[in-house]
Design a protein that fits this description.
Shape of chain B: globular
Number of helices of chain A: 8
CATH superfamily of the largest domain in chain A: HUPs
Distance between the termini of chain A: 69 Å
Number of strands of chain A: 18
CATH architecture of the largest domain in chain B: 3-Layer(bba) Sandwich
Strand content of chain B: 25-35%
Bound molecules: flavin-adenine dinucleotide, adenosine monophosphate
Strand content of chain A: 15-25%
Order of helices and strands of chain A: EEEHEHEHEHEEEEEEEEHEHEHEEH
Helix content of chain B: 25-40%
Distance between the termini of chain B: 56 Å
Largest interface: A-C, 111 and 106 residues
Number of helices of chain B: 14
CATH architecture of the largest domain in chain A: 3-Layer(aba) Sandwich
Oligomer: heterotrimer
Largest sheet of chain A: 7 strands, parallel
Shape of chain A: elongated
CATH superfamily of the largest domain in chain B: FAD/NAD(P)-binding domain
Chains: A alpha/beta, B alpha/beta, C alpha/beta
Number of domains of chain A: 2
Chain lengths: 366, 433, 283
Amino acid sequence: MSNPKTPAAAPAGGRGAAKKELPERFQSYKNVWVFIEMERGKVHSVSWELLGEGRKLADKLGVELAAVIMGPPGEGITHAINDSWAYGADLAYVIADPLLTDYRNQTFTKGLNDLVNTHQPEILLLGASTLGRDLAGSLATTLKTGLTADCTELAIDDDRCLAATRPTFGGTLLCTIYTLNFRPQMATVRPRVMAMPERTEGRSGRVIEFPLNMAEENIITKVLDFLPDVTSDKVNLAYADVVVAGGLGLGSPANFKLVTDLAEVLGADYGGSRPTIQKGWLPADRQIGQTGKTIRPKLYIAAGISGAIQHRVGVEGADMILAINADPNATIFEFAHYGIVGDALQILPALTAAFRERLGKLRMAS
Amino acid sequence: MAEHFDAIVVGAGMAGNAATYTLAKAGLNVLQIERGEYPGSKNVQGAILYANAVEALIPDFREDAPLERHVIEQRMWILDDRSYVGTHFRSENFNEEKPNRYTIIRAQFDKWLNKQAKDAGAMVICETTVLELLKDETGKVIGVRCDRDNGEVYADVVVLCDGVNALVGQRSGIRQEVAPEHAALAVKEMHFLPREVINERFNIADNEGVVIEILGTVTSGMLGTGFLYTNGESIALGIGCIVSDFVEKKINPAHLLEKLKAHPSIAPLIRGSEVKEYAAHLIPEGGFKGVPELSGDGWVICGDAAHFVNAAHREGSNLALTSGRIAAENIVALKKAGKPMSAENLKLYNQALEESFVLKDLKKYKDLPDTLWRNKQFVTTYPELLAQAAERFLRVDGVDKLTKEKEIARSFRKARGVLGLVGDAVKVARAWR
Amino acid sequence: MHIVVCIKQVPDSAQIRVHPVTNTIMRQGVPTIINPYDLFALEEALRLRDKLGGKVTVLTMGPPMADESLRKALGFGADAAVLLTDRFFAGSDTLATSFALSTAIAKLHAQEPVSVVFTGKQTIDGDTAQVGPGIAQRLGLNQLTYVSAIRSVDAENRSIVVERRAEGGVQVLKTGLPCLITMLEGTNTIRRGSMDDMFRAARASLTVWNAKDAGVEDMAMCGLKGSPTVVKKVFAPQPRKEKAVQVATEGKSPAEIAQATLETLFAANPKLEGDLLKLSAAS
Ligand SMILES: Cc1cc2nc3c(=O)[nH]c(=O)nc-3n(C[C@H](O)[C@H](O)[C@H](O)COP(=O)(O)OP(=O)(O)OC[C@H]3O[C@@H](n4cnc5c(N)ncnc54)[C@H](O)[C@@H]3O)c2cc1C
Ligand SMILES: Cc1cc2nc3c(=O)[nH]c(=O)nc-3n(C[C@H](O)[C@H](O)[C@H](O)COP(=O)(O)OP(=O)(O)OC[C@H]3O[C@@H](n4cnc5c(N)ncnc54)[C@H](O)[C@@H]3O)c2cc1C
Ligand SMILES: Nc1ncnc2c1ncn2[C@@H]1O[C@H](COP(=O)(O)O)[C@@H](O)[C@H]1O
């Protein structure tokens, strides 16, 4: 164990001085970077969502958007580069090294840290996945810069600074956080919080390769095994186009059948509010909301859910929200698009029947 | 080796904290055991604190105890479904240097009072439930057993302050279960509002408070009352009725509270508030008739566990504080005199209580609970009649006042009959006397 | 084996209220708890100690009243407790927090070598999951985040094998000691201490360190001054401008309501019908 490393001297007025006084050495930091998260050859779609968001920031600043791709040499990297162009990147920094086959904190922190110090981005975005959070936390410490976690909104202010907005105090409030005097300004964003950008085919950009400069002997952590999730393909709530969810208002776990019935007819996925998970009505990976999944479906049907802020932040990205609640004053009606005041136990089966009939007819006709 | 203390106090409510503080301050080695996460975490009260009972313990408590507002106005409202008739008493005299009544939030006050006990040298252990009393072969209480591994702890005397359910005493065969007609079930909510809004709605300044006692049809024919107290940044609103009435009428207490909240006289007072706590709690309301044996070989019992609540005046916390203190003082006296904590010696506690307001007041009203319980007209018929009478009298509609008075009198006679009216008056007068 | 567990005292967020006018947090009377995620770390640490011997030290940085959570941790069975408290620490962001904590851990290490540092996955108030990795980086500890199980510890060869939650699966990692583990939730259940633990906790004297005691030399590294991030604005989420369009229900049967709902949805979004058709066919 070593002694805590002392960061570079703080600018006058302290590190967090509320006014921007960007030190000389940071003036050259430029461009918006998005870390492209690739685990076992597959890019996590949160990275594309971030490229979409990064594009807007880069355009506002009038700078370039870069994708940072780290992984073992091979097809995975080639695909990631090509997809990065399609999702808006102007350039790609690539560290291709067999040591990067599996994610390990030490290798990725070293590679990205060196890359940042060499090519100096002003903004660096990562997905708030297990990988992204693991990496962002250590990188911000080695770089001694500010990191804002789980942002829900990113913008550029008049001072050309990143304004990163995130929920605070268990989601009851939002706060906007700046890193005024350090670079890069780092932020993580949870999957599905930002919309998936449209692909633009035929775009391309510059590839800048960068070495890792490490040897396996010097890496202490070894990956002994990887046990893929058995259910990971089944529950894909975050990416479902239609989601039906139930809350405590359903009254009992047995009544969740009304939710799954409707979901089945709609080809939808299903989930629940946090208390339904806590009570064991549904497994944990079905929780929707701030501490569960963020969803962005085309249609979200919420039955017997009151619409607490922690639930709301997880569903606000839906194109259309239909809420069924017995209480005309339920908070959910304040952000749902359509509301039915009534007993979900009666309305849900009626909806199931109506959709079944309607879709059945259409199918016959086509 | 099992631990041994001079005294073990069960519970960290009003009674337990008063006892623990008094014992520790006198230098006794005392252990206090509380079931909740922290002292006060489970305690529900309206809540009004009567200053003198605390002063007897800590004369300058006002300096740092968490007090919400001192009460300057007392309202008594009798509701029917659409109206209320009532009295308000407000006086600048209540803005005195050392006010007599405060609203408090129990979770905070209990924590504070407990801290005084801890600072005085008591050992406090929370999140631990006392299951039963330990006795020796002669039946003398020698300690308690708790719900943790190695949970047996010993002491010369156990002070039972475990509140209205008094499960420890029941399980250990020193007292009976509380009869359903001797307990009220109260449900309560905290409605949070900014301080300024409360000040405006009740026409009060920052630390001034208002209490509303509520009678009438809101109890749906059951014997009970509602209450509304202003705290600093919240309003405590609740309603309580006798348990046996709830059972008989099959009424859901939560619905009763909903009804109270929706009443046109109450709704505007809590509009726009954020509701944070819903709590249900029993109140011992049997009065003197519900009081059990108060002490025995190696034990004493205080507060709600001893059924010390004066329902007529909605006093409980002060009886708990006082009984806890008196119990402790007598234990300290025995200890100092080197006398054993035998049944006979602990009778000192019973005697001291007889001489205090605690038992005197309870005796005074000993018939009131039963009288009211057997005569539901006090909570059903009268409130409506009163409201109708007031409305008839105030409405200017061309009918002369004398006729109106006669009509009102007739409506009362019709509803209760002359004998009924006289009888009711006598019943109340007797019980109150 | 000496194990340090970082715990934080947090307001019970289920009970937090926001002042509707000033948008500030109304902390008055909001009870505090040990960050629930940290209890998984504490239990795992206690299990390691029970198996391998040694001691568990709990460490927190916070106001003086944070000693409550340390005492609670002792009641669960921890052996020693250190409270880091100093006005210089006020306003710390994650970088400044990990600085203060790592300085204190380095001091604990000097007194009695530390093999594992545990933190929770994240806090429920800060919610960043950054402090653990921050400490690991500063102290040069091998970092193991989102650990779901500890498979084995070889004290002699100073190595550890853990299962770590990764995207799409579980990594089995082997690394050297000392290491930092951030423990995943739901991996264990905090034990109930015995009556003896409760007595020990009640009697224990806590170690209280201010910044100097902990070994901080440069105060500018702490608190607000040592925090690169600046909170510029705190605000309540905006309600959507229009409220939900209500489907008429008065006097209608559920079937009629459902029918009316379908008409409303499909009229508002003509593409929806086709989308649903595709989806339902696919499933
Ligand atoms: C730190 C923190 C994180 C949290 N994270 C999340 C999260 O990720 N996701 C989440 O969902 N919550 C989360 N919560 C919890 C959140 O605050 C709410 O408590 C929760 O969302 C409420 O769940 P609910 O709507 O199912 O239950 P309730 O609030 O009890 O609402 C039930 C609703 O059902 C209605 N109802 C009752 N009967 C019927 C009927 N027959 N038909 C129709 N309607 C009926 C009622 O009117 C009511 O509106 C979090 C809380 C905290 C403090
Ligand atoms: C809704 C309501 C409104 C009220 N309003 C008023 C009012 O305005 N003014 C007033 O003076 N009085 C009021 N009272 C009455 C007053 O609250 C009680 O009389 C008073 O709290 C009694 O104090 P106590 O210490 O005996 O019991 P409690 O305050 O109930 O304390 C008992 C303690 O013992 C603990 N405990 C219980 N069992 C065990 C166990 N087995 N092991 C360990 N610990 C245990 C409990 O957790 C609790 O902390 C009200 C009561 C209610 C319910
Ligand atoms: N003030 C603190 N004192 C001790 N530990 C802390 C503190 N803040 C954070 N931690 C630890 O760091 C973990 C992650 O916190 P956070 O980065 O705030 O989500 C927590 O679960 C704690 O174990």
